[in-house]
Design goal:
4 helices; mainly alpha; 74 residues; 70% helix; elongated
Length: 74
């Protein structure tokens, strides 16, 4: 019985994760900055929308400074 409950809990968590993924993808599709970021190789839609919504571009002097922030620039 315990394993059945655990399995049900995992299934519920998977449904919640899928719902959140759908919401993030909808936000990504509606945001032109996020779509531009996702065009960079190795950057997917979830990373792009997260960066778009959480990073203030005025904190960086240039694109190079922004790229150096997560250690993307040589």
């Amino acid at each position: 019985m315990m394993f059945a409950r655990m399995g049900q809990h995992v299934a519920e968590l998977n449904q919640k994760i899928q719902a959140i993924d759908r919401q993030l993808l909808e936000q990504h599709k509606a945001n032109p900055v996020s779509r531009r970021l996702a065009a960079i190789p190795g950057v997917g839609p979830i990373t792009a929308i997260t960066v778009t919504l959480s990073v203030n571009p005025t904190n960086f002097e240039s694109g190079r400074h922004f790229a150096a922030w997560p250690d993307l620039a040589p």
